[in-house]
Each structure stands twice: as structure tokens, then as C-alpha cells.
Amino acid sequence: MNITMGNYEIEINGDHRDDFDPRIQNNASEERHLIDGKKITVGFVYNAVYKQKNALEHGLKQIRKIYPNSKIYIVSDGGFDYSYLENQYDNLKFEMGEDTIGAYTKMNFHNYLEEENQRAIKKNIAINIERILKGIEYCGNPDWTFMTESDVLLRGKVSYPSNAKLLGTRLNYAWDIPGRLEQYISMNKISSQVEGSIPMFRWGAVPAIFDTETYLKAIKVYNENFNLLDDVTGTVFGINCFDVIVPFLFSLVGEEEVYNSEITECFRDPLWRTSSHPIVHQFREYYSDESHYPYMEVR
């Protein structure tokens, strides 16, 4: 099977659905299954809450309303000490971590290949994988893992399409600005050497909601091919970002990010307050000016 991406012809090997196309946004099947927190369990992992205290506290209250028995694992990424939350909530564990994002805010398309920046990117990926694995373990290896952030508001129980192992918006694509497609072509050339992998050209897994067993399988494949895959940090700017690295890991085991129609975003949807979406991203009404990292712009 071959697909065309700009001036490139991409060969896709292996067994895939007849309608597999990494270029489209909505690739979800119609049938959905409810993650009810009982028959199908879910655990929540915050791996970089930093200093968003009010937003985090509000988000936790919402999670507890919707999934009262689900476990929650929180890491402060060099931010505030949230250990007091362990006394306020059952089934919640907090750990203080080091800042892995601050260095990335100083990077751009022109300097991310510098040796110091490459070290920071690789460290960021390794630490975040470690944090997620610890979170999964604390949450008791739930059926699904909800990798969330302080600007995510949960308003109802979530579901997943039958063909999904990873949910996301798939809003971002590799042909939006000059030079990006070439980066993703280079990345996919590396990952294509892993048997059973598929190409990745769309992403947007924030929050990342994924089948836990498949994630653990993906990490196993990543570790087994680490000497090869470690080089991807030199191909794509921003591969260490949550919404990119998680879909990349799943692509190694032949699973694409699947479009999640249950997410809306405050900056893109002016009607988000009255919409029926159970998940709201970019919810920052509880943020202060100093409580989060500055936005990173392509320069």
C-alpha cells in the first residue's frame, strides 16, 4: 500500500485495515464503548502539573465526581508541593519531580539539534515514560489510562471507538509549515525499521487516553529498539511533547491515534461551555499569569 505525502511516496508495509490512511483526521469507528470505571476501569496520571494549584484542585474535584473510585497519580514537574492532596483524597498519590519542560521552552526549529538541547529532549522523554509507568502501577494497571493535565476539565464519563487503543484530536498534521513534513518523513524512516510499525503524520493526544496494555507493549518495543529509536529526537522538533511522543510510541506497535469526538477546546470552540463534550481542553479559568510555562512559538 502506497500513499502520497507532498512530493513523497510512502510505502506502508504489514497488515492494516483497508481504509487505513494516516492523513485523515476522523478515523474513528462508529461503535463506542463506555469507560464506566467499574467493568472497564480507568486511572488518571498527571505527569507535569507544575504550579497550576487552583486548576489542579478544580480538576480533581471534577474527576472525583465522575469517577469516584479511580486512582489518581500526580507528579509536580519542578513546581509546587501537592502532598497535602494525599490527606484530602483516597486513592491519590503525589510525587515531587524535577522540571523537564523548562529547557524545552527555550528551544525552536533552529536550535533543537544543539547537543545540550538534544540531551534535554531525551531526558524529558525518558522521565515522562518513567512517570507514566509509575502512574499505571499505582493505579493498579487499569484497563485505560487517562494521561491528563491541569487545563483539562472532565464533565462526564468518556467512551472509546471500537478501533481505538489511543484517543486524541489528530488536529495537528505534518504538512502545516515548511520543513515539518521532511522532519516527519525522516522520523518515519527510522520507525519503519521496527517490524509491525505504521507511519504517523497526525497527532493531538492531549489529553492522551489509552489502552494500558497496548501502551506497555509499545514501551517494550521502544526499549527493545532503543538504539535505533533514540535517534528520532534529531528528526522532529517537539517529539518529546506529550501529544507527539505518545502517538509515536503507539505507532511502533501498529496502532494509530484515533480521533476522539468527545474532546472540545476552549480556544477553538466558542460554544464549549454549552457543548455536550465530556472533555474540555485548554480550560484555564483557574490559571494565574505565573502558574504555567510560557507558550512556545515556532520561530
Secondary structure layout:
Elements: E1 2-5, E2 8-11, E3 32-34, E4 42-46, H1 53-66, E5 72-77, H2 85-88, E6 92-97, H3 115-138, E7 144-148, E8 152-154, E9 159-161, E10 166-168, E11 172-173, H4 180-191, E12 202-203, E13 208-211, H5 212-224, H6 226-229, H7 242-251, E14 258-259, E15 263-265, E16 279-281
Parallel strand pairs: 4-5, 4-7, 5-6, 10-14, 15-16
Antiparallel strand pairs: 1-2, 3-9, 7-13, 8-16, 10-13, 11-12
What does this molecule look like?
The protein has 7 helices and 16 strands. By secondary structure, it is an alpha/beta fold. 27% of the residues lie in helices and 19% in strands. The strands form 5 sheets. A 7-stranded mixed sheet has the order 6-5-4-7-13-10-14. The chain has one domain (34-281): Spore Coat Polysaccharide Biosynthesis Protein SpsA, Chain A, CATH 3.90.550. The protein has helices spanning 53-66, 85-88, 115-138, 180-191, 212-224, 226-229, 242-251, and strands at 2-5, 8-11, 32-34, 42-46, 72-77, 92-97, 144-148, 152-154, 159-161, 166-168, 172-173, 202-203, 208-211, 258-259, 263-265, 279-281. Residues 295-299 have low confidence and may be disordered. The radius of gyration is 19 Å and the shape is globular.
